[in-house]
Amino acid sequence: MLRFATGRRLLVLCTLALAALILATPGYAQTGAVQGIVLDAAGKPLEKAPVLIEYTDGINRKYEVKTNKKGEFIQIGLQPGGYKVTASFEGLGSQSFPVRVRLGDPMKVNFKLGGAEAKAAVSKEDLVKAAALKSKFDEGVTASKAGSFDEAIAKFTEAAAMVPPPGCYDCQYNIGYNYMQKKDYDQAEAAYLKAIEMKNNYVDAYNGLATVYNAQKKFDKAGEASQKASEMAAAAGPGSGGSGGVDAEYNQGVIDWNAGKIVESAEHFQKVIFMKPDHAEAHYQLGMAYVNQGKLADAVPMFEKYLQLAPEGQFAATAKGILTSIKK
Questions:
Q1: What is the pTM of this model?
Q2: Which domain holds residue 64?
Q3: CA torsion, points 141, 143, 146, 151, in degrees to nearest 10?
């Protein structure tokens, strides 16, 4: 049975924990919403009025919702950018307005159908502010991807200051992400906690916390954060999108590995692979778990799959070396 020194194993897994967060790029945590009300010319709410929301910044993407008994509607999970929002009702015609969706609070668009004086509740000033926020946020994303973490933190901080209470939780998430890349764990923790304060079911922020605590070897706290992320991802259901459940399982595997629970860690890495078959690091780490259990035959396909998925990955040399040793 091959075994690795505890210190090296901790180092490998802490590095892997960081890799899990790197996979979740800052651009993933960017959603907005549109909400409003549809009334007739007399101010009476219109129930079941169709509201079409069309993305206008280059991608053919449409959403359709209907109003409730109070004439209200809301559409969440929208990528920031330009949209055309159209409300209609049989016999009363339709009305459309351009809207720029921003991060944080929903953009409000109110309609009055059947009258000549219909106006949208979106002012020109609101549109200018939304465009400025998007521009600043995008600058932060660009800087982060380029490895300019201090610049990215400054841009996201500026963007956060542009959003009224309760604030921009996505900005705080990305501030935390960039502090994490700088290994400034205290600042990263503070930013993730602030994001969670603004949005208490923020799966990615809890995963970020788990990664911070793993890197600091605060395994109890890491386990608590990862468990919260897992519970929230499960509650959101398989159709909720995002990588929260995958990251939570991976983080829990890291936590169990660091605690010496090799069998339990393998079970988590297996779940990651089931949910995301192309998760290279999960294949590598499952191979390591098998090696530590003496299951060398099971380890081989894991390392081979890792090399297929990430031939130039940071663990490619190690995987090749172990494969060579096993096959001898």
A1: 0.52
A2: 32-121
A3: -140
Q: Which of 220, 231, 216, 221 is nearest to 180 (CA)?
A: 216
DSSP readout, 86-147? Answer: EEEETTTEEEEEEEEE-SSSPEEEEEEESSTT---S--HHHHHHHHHHHHHHHHHHHHHHTT
Distance CA 148, CA 71 (A): 46
Confidence of residue 234 (pLDDT cuts 50, 70, 90): low
Name the strand (E) or helix (H) holding 1.
none
Residue 173 and residue 320 in one domain = yes
Mean pLDDT of 147-163: 93
Q: Is the dihedral of CA 70, 201, 285, 144 positive or negative?
A: positive
On the CB side of 105, how many CA atoms lie within 13 Å of its CA? 14
- The tokens for 184 are 């400034």
Name the domain count of the chain.
2
Do 150 and 242 lie in a common domain? yes
Which of 16-20, 158-162, 226-230 has the largest mean confidence?
A: 158-162
For 55, residues 6+ apart whose C-beta sits below 8 A from its C-beta are 61, 62, 78, 79, 81, 82, 83
Does any domain span residue 250? yes
